[in-house]
Amino acid sequence: MSETSPAAKADTTKLEAESRSATKAQLAEFWYYFSQNKGAVAGLVVFVLLVLMAVFAAFIAPHNPDFQYRDSFLVPPVWQEGGKAEFLLGTDAVGRDILSRLIYGAQFSLFIGVVVVTIALVGGITIGLVAGYMRGAVDTFIMRVMDIILAFPSLLLALVLVAILGPGLINAMIAIAIVLQPHFVRLTRAAVLAERSRDYVVAARVAGAGHIRLMFKTILPNCLAPLIVQATLSFSNAILDAAALGFLGMGAQPPTPEWGTMLAEAREFILRAWWVVTFPGLAILITVLAINLVGDGLRDALDPKLKRS
Amino acid sequence: MLRFLLGRLGLLIPTFFGVTLVAFSFIRLLPGDPLDLLAGERGIDPERKAELMAQMGFDKPLWQQYIDYVIGIFHGDLGTSFASKKPVLDEFLTLFPATAELALCAIILAVCLGIPAGIFAAVKRGTIADQAIMGTALVGYSMPIFWWGLLLIIFFSGILQWTPVSGRISLLYFFPQVTGFMLIDSLLSGEKGAFISAVRHLILPSIVLATIPLAVIARQTRSAMLEVLGEDYVRTARAKGLTPSSVIGLHALRNALIPVVTTIGLQVGVLLAGAILTETIFSWPGIGKWLVDSIARRDYFVVQGGLLLIAGIIMLVNLIVDVLYGLINPRIRHH
Amino acid sequence: MNFQKTLKATLLGASLAVIAATGASAKTLVYCSEGSPEGFDTALYTAGTTFDASSKPLYNRLVEFKRGTTEVLPGLAESWEVSEDGLEYTFNLRKGVKFHTTSFFTPSRDFNADDVVFSFERQLKKDHPWHEYTPGTAWEYFNGMSMPDLIKEIVKVDDHTVKFVLNRPEAPMIANLAMDFASIVSAEYADSLASAGTKEQFNQQPVGTGPFAFVGYQKDAVIRYGAHADYWNGKEKIDNLIFAITPDAAVRLQKLKAGECHVMPYPAPADIADIRADSNLTLMEQQGLNVGYLAYNTKVAPFDKKEVRKALNHAVNKQAILDAVFQGSGQAAKNPIPPTMWSYNEATEDDDYNPDLAKEMLAAAGVENLSMKVWAMPVQRPYNPNARRMAEVIQADFAKVGVNVEIVSYEWGEYLSRSKDVDRDGAVLLGWTGDNGDPDNFLAVLLGCDGVGGSNRAQWCNDDFEALIQKAKTVTDKAERTKLYEEAQAVFKDEAPWATIAHSVVFMPMSSKVTGYVMDPLGGHWFDGVDIAE
Q1: How large is the ipTM?
Q2: Is the minimum CB–CB distance between A273 and chain B shorter than 8 Å?
Q3: Which of B140, B85, B131 is nearest to B302 (CA)?
Q4: Is 2.30.30.30 the CATH number for A38-306?
Q5: What is the pLDDT of residues C150-193, one digit of tens each?
Q6: C residues 385-414 near A, CB within 8 Å?
């Protein structure tokens, strides 16, 4: 089956070499378009800063995020009356420094985003490739399952899944990945359907490329653009959904300094200590906004036709 | 057209059964049960518990429970709430108008602001106005709405005391529920000030729930407009000397709205998910809060029935959007 | 906010049959309740929230608790006699008691023996036409109190006399009949619904003899009541009572401050100081009949050694817990029963907070690098407003004496059942709220040998302790019982199966316009006798 004639082999090698140099050109073009979008660059800068903050949290954070200063419960931010200089953004109900918790919280939010997108992306692409490539009954079955998942509001489905798996950060991430991956399946499948009859795929098939090779090495790289855009979107969605689950008490569990969980814990102080409510939400907003800015930039750069922003 | 419609309906049937299966298995996978929860620290006698579980039909084999459940659905019977002892469907129908009213107000707000904002931004492309609108839209799109709701409460209800804190209407008003929509019922009641009160109670929750759809619609409208404005027939119309506003109004807008209609349809799921958070924050007596509470209480039949009904609504709306899309844009039918 | 003016205008416009008020002077009290009632036929349910909305405003019982106490007074029964063998209770019923006249029911007769027999027989007899009148009917409280075994029959002697015949003597029988499940419903109303084929309305549109009549309920939003004009104990001073269902404590307080409601239960501990400072609000408080504790598993090493348990008790900083978790709405606990309960041992000495001593004791017991789990329940309880936060404080305290703590949690139902396991890994945060004020209800249930593998979460079975509480059960002399229970508490403190954490204080914030509100030691919320100033 997999025996290939030398001529065909040479053909594929040539094709690959061409595509490599094309990749370089594409990257340059991509960066050109991306850097045109000032918002996207700003978003990228903020995002890089957030990543740095998360990585070097131990060096930046002024306090241990879990240490309880027993004489400093609910201290307001430094600029407000009663604030203390050592707690820039104040402390929470058990005397932990909010700034330090926010800095460490960046680790969780980014971790959530990366893990969820990875699971959803890998799962979604594999399933989508299989559906689009195999067609027939397999395709129908997969797409009906995806329809079922999409028939529920994502947050509700995630909520029930977490209730089944048990509240916690890991389970919340699994649940969110499950509700996000149908989008990847649909995108991949659509792209595969569009690509599979193209000349280069037919050529590779004639040259005797196997199914797996055809799916992953030939077709997949050509449908990456929409997937990358979707992945950025999912990254910010994952952070928002995880925070929402944390807010409903079903996400990361205290004392984890996850931002949504911090908000949930702070809810009872809404009238008394505005800072414990305001800052975690602001952190979520800034992070999600930065990622969405980058996502818009990526979309413009990858698909100049779709100039949306 | 009929074939198209039938085809879409045909796709719905397996999905519907899949949804029933999912809802059915979920409540059987949930750890804990309503009886233990209700008994609390006191505990419940195991024999008595088995008796009560049998009363709910949980002693039958799984396949039979499922068949009973599906047969029940076709008779409009979704079981009885464990907490209130009332039929799940009745509870849903009492609470649904509250969610529907909130969601409708939110979507109307989102459409009425989002489409003009998108058009304006597209027409003024590249200007400061465009950037400001799109920047705001992106902030809205990135908003954790549960936090946004809390901020609005702190500011408008707490500090300024302009809006009421929670509920659907001032407690001073009392009139029969005719439609379940407080805005309509308050007008029908003829009581002075009732309508105003209902509106005041709706403002903050609607804003919170509309935030994300508004942003999405504004962005979608702008990009659709830009695409259409670049197309040949619009340029021709312009060249013919039509005024910019009639170009936008007559030609571009109609075509640009096609993808926007789809977007609005897709927002229904977003709205229902948002309703869970919004209703929790504002103590709004709707189905979002009802479901979250029921999951926590392990009120089996409410969770099972509620999931099914919500999925049913989303599927129905998606079908309507599909059909509408097919009507506006005949090309799609042949795909 | 033009509260009073709008109120008058509205009430004039509203055509409410039951509200006998003349409009211009109608007084309305709004109570921001914490949750929705499950229904209005009290005996079907066990939740306090449901009782507040059903049995308390709508119904009466044969006997009633005196307001603010657990003392029993005549209610719908004017007097009663108990036979010498303790098996027959004969009640002489009050005459001229009217049921509510509402938009959905007009009674044709006064309350009589038929209503009493109906109220109990439907719970007692499995073949009673009202035994299962709505799907999923379960008379949980009646069953939970073992009434089906206890009551042999209920006999109507004449229209105004009813006799309860028991299978065995039961000293607390009279007090039991003052409980919510013993509320008296209308047999005539039941008959009229049965003939109309709408039995399920019995649970949705209730009719009783109580101080307030049912007007309407919007699910999860509002319940309305009107004063019962012909109430046998005199018409209430307020004309309308409204329950505004507001599950979120912060929102409840917002509404109280904005004048949207007048009374609220369960304020967030965080807001207590703020409420105290507000001159428009009154804050009533009462010590709760409860205890919150951390139960070690005394069957698992190293917690089987009392020295280790003692050492850990010395490592818990209760003051920090009271500050951070209770925000001042609690008091440190040293005994397993609350101080308001008789036989509370004042002499017990608590394990003071002393990390150095704790470290020494652990070292002396040969325990090094101890790692343990602390279980924290996922829900708010009357005895513990925030178990997770409490666990975090304990985690930090234990870290100071070199003990590493992992906090674990399960869904509440799971938590309750898993924590019963005899070989459970870890110490568990839990508590108890008493239901009848007897020390046996705490000590035997929570620490007796029978409770091992069940409600005794410390899995602690101590011979001395067990002998004392068993003896106290059989003795009738209260002074002697007191002595026995005091001794039992001393044994408990010495053995330290628990770290006793705190007893909570129950707060009721209300508008300072409200007068006559009395707090219920059993945790209910009553609005009879309450007035509101214009």
Answers
A1: 0.88
A2: no
A3: B85
A4: no
A5: 899 999 999 999 999 999 877 678 888 998 999 999 999 999 99
A6: 388-389, 392-393, 395-396, 407, 409-411
